[in-house]
Prior knowledge:
Oligomer: single chain
Number of helices: 6
Mean pLDDT: 82
Helix content: 55-70%
Amino acid sequence: MGKPDQGQSKKLEAAARFWAGERSQPVGGLDENVIQGLISAGAPDDVIELARSKIKTGSVEQFEVYEENWETVLFFLALKGQWRVISGMSIFYQDINHTAIFHTMEMLCIPKRQRKQLFLDVKLMASAALELLNNHKD
């Protein structure tokens, strides 16, 4: 679990935004290039229309995670119940509880040499998720 490069960091941020509900980017690998490929390959019209509808509705619930980010994403997901939240007339997410992060690292026997980078990666993901969690208010 070495320091992620800029592309890995962007992918971690995107994974967190996806977890928080963002579906503005094509998901599951479906985009207009796939549609054009289906047309070129002679796919039946119903298959092409189904793919188009999935792009429009964002109904494909998949997100690609780089192999080198997999453990970080799993760790982030393990913390899903550890958000500090202020509730009243509305809900405001503050951050993931830092104590919970470190206790979870201990419980999962994360080697000490990996903890700093894992903490930084989780904070990066939390920051990306917070943008959506606190902006999707009715």
